[in-house]
Amino acid sequence: MKISELSDRSGLPVQTIKYYIREGLLPKGTATAATRAEYDGRHLDRLRLIKALREVGDLPIASVQQIVAAVDDDDIPLHRLLGKAQYALGPGTEPHPGDPDWRAAREDVDAIIAELGWRVLPNAPTRDLLAQAFVALRRLGLPIVLTDLRPYIEAAELIADHEVGALSVDEDREKAVQTAVATNVLYERVLLALRRMAQENASAVRFDDEA
Amino acid sequence: MKISELSDRSGLPVQTIKYYIREGLLPKGTATAATRAEYDGRHLDRLRLIKALREVGDLPIASVQQIVAAVDDDDIPLHRLLGKAQYALGPGTEPHPGDPDWRAAREDVDAIIAELGWRVLPNAPTRDLLAQAFVALRRLGLPIVLTDLRPYIEAAELIADHEVGALSVDEDREKAVQTAVATNVLYERVLLALRRMAQENASAVRFDDEA
Predict the structure, then answer these.
(1) How many structural domains compose chain A?
(2) Interacting residues of A145 by C-beta distance below 8 A, sequence separation 6+
(3) Which residues in chain A have their CB less than 8 angstroms from residue B119's CB?
(4) Which of A120, A159, B178, B197 might form a disulfide with B49, Cβ 3.0–4.6 angstroms?
(5) A80, A107, A125: which is the final residue of a domain?
(6) Which domain holds residue A18?
(7) Model confidence over B85-99: pLDDT tens digits?
(8) ipTM higher than the 0.90 cut
(9) Which residues does the UniProt record annotate as the domain HTH merR-type (chains A, B) (predicted)?
(10) pLDDT (tens digit, 9 = 90+) per residue, A27-42?
């Protein structure tokens, strides 16, 4: 197909597609004349992946480049590839190893993960993300107690088992990453909305005698 | 106490405290001289609430004013007060009633809540938040199927029952709102981090033969 059709089908302007080619995110088309090139379904799939990473994952071009390179590198197993995509997603956190509160929180996080026996890499950004929330709660006078975490841990396991179980093993790598990023970001919003609705309902049931 | 002590104990600069007084968020102290006023524990509690709303909830002054007014209005029952605080929290969404995709998604949301029998007000912003995520998923070729939602609904109920159950009935209104906002925002981050960790673990268990 021509670049104009690629643009129509991907929903991306021609200028954006050319920019992705210049940045090495998208392979060049097959030249059919001095100023013409032919594109195929692989280009469209790649554009859909880039679109998900950019628009849904809100990732900078540099992160997209790394993920796209990992998709193309068959030596990287699917589990590592999905991890790479997940690690690239925000929100970012900055570790504060000089701050004793932060260090204590990070030690709590590491102890909890060890206790759960979860296989989470030592450099996973989620460890810092959780530590950061622990610090903020403690500073508000609401320190975390392990029993308070129980329902969140149970809920996280319930959801993750469903999500990872739904991935097909022989899935195309490109499609698997696209789905994983979209699922991560958008089902996070689904979960956020449902949790707040469930709160409103539980509060109505418990406190609202009028209704 | 003097304003300087109020500043020390709340962790807020004197200028910020004066600004909150001018904006009507914080009652004036009791004048003890032409340029001196005395503050008490109620002022400190109010400042802690404002701080949670501003710094954790990231709310604009106008929303803080509304919530503070509701805290002071004993005719507003606790359930409504907590709802008001929750509705003020982001992320904001804009309904798109002119867009057929959005309308269909919003109808799906309303049908799901009705089916669950959840007591969620028709104007709850969470309905639009969920509809927005549905639209984005559909546009990526990942339309929502009700069975896919099941684990998220179950997880949301699990968490909300715990959270609402943990609120003490005879809690001070000021403190209840402060805790609810902090819990909403910060435990959302806790849940986000735990879900991603649980994903990494589930993916390692399923796909990673090396480890």
Answers:
(1) 2
(2) none
(3) 200-201, 204-205, 208, 211
(4) B178
(5) A80
(6) 3-80
(7) 899 887 878 888 899
(8) no
(9) 1-70
(10) 999 999 888 899 999 9
